[in-house]
Amino acid sequence: MFGFMLFLHFAGLLAWVGGLIVIIVMIGMLSKQLGLSQDSNLLARRTVSVFSYLAHPGAVLVLGSGLYLILNMGSGSKPLWLSIMEMGGGTIALLFLIITGILGSKVKKKLKAAHGQPVKVTGYLTTMTAFMVLVLGVVLVVSLKI
User: Fold this and answer.
1) Which residue spans traverse the membrane (predicted)?
2) Using CA atoms, how far apart are residues 63 and 61, in angstroms rounded to an integer?
3) pLDDT tens digits for 116-143?
């Protein structure tokens, strides 16, 4: 069972990080056209929706499988990398689910309401990039077992 949960953990991480990469690249490429063209607005709204369907379940899968893996490791003194993975990774996953859900719906509303006016999504892109850096930072610490 441990091996299967580890597989689910990595599969969720792959979906989560893959979704972040897609949203950063797609919205970044469309950012200059947003608000000016209905086609680009529609594409951006659909991209944010697909991102939600891909990355949010991935983050939930990472959170759930990580919780299972940590509970099965037992208690006792833990190395620093395991504490960072446990507390930092869990916190990042929870914050990600809450913040990106709120920001995603705000961006979609802005895009839907924009009629020829430019739409700024720099805050959304900055937040997604920050989450990407945080997730990869936790992955780096865990991989190096610092």
Assistant:
1) 6-30, 50-71, 83-103, 124-144
2) 5
3) 788 888 999 999 999 999 999 988 988 8
